[in-house]
Design goal:
Elements: E1 3-7, E2 10-13, E3 18-25, E4 34-39, E5 46-51, E6 57-59, E7 67-72, E8 77-82, E9 91-97, E10 101-102, E11 106-111
Parallel strand pairs: 2-11
Antiparallel strand pairs: 1-3, 3-8, 4-5, 4-9, 5-6, 7-8, 9-10, 9-11
């Protein structure tokens, strides 16, 4: 059974940083494409970043170099380092293992 558990969300002021973690169990992220998605109130869930099995990364345009996705195979965990946060980054952030395994989400709130 695949389980993804996110952590690291919270309340931060604009310009601040947060680091999200997603610990996986039941699968090896070493051979998986993993990703971060987010959903703001009243909006559809959207891609933030992905990292594939060989370390290749992909980012949404709105990231603009502020976020970095990484992976620790030994810990079976992926991360999302978020810097220069903006109020519009406020959302629930979800971890995903392609194609259809999702975590429960972690809330990020960025105050102006």
């Amino acid at each position: 059974q695949v389980q993804l558990v996110e952590s690291g969300g919270g309340l931060v002021q604009a310009g601040g940083s947060l680091k999200l973690s997603c610990r996986a169990s039941g699968i090896s992220i070493r051979v998986s494409t993993m990703g971060w998605y987010r959903q703001a109130p009243g909006k559809q869930r959207e891609l933030v970043a992905t990292i594939d099995w060989n370390g290749g990364t992909n980012y949404a345009d709105f990231v603009e170099g502020r976020f970095t996705v990484s992976r620790d195979n030994a810990r079976n965990t992926i991360y999302l380092q978020m810097n220069s946060l903006k109020p519009e980054d406020t959302a629930v952030y979800y971890c995903r293992r392609s194609p259809d395994s999702w975590g429960q989400g972690t809330q990020v709130i960025v105050s102006a």
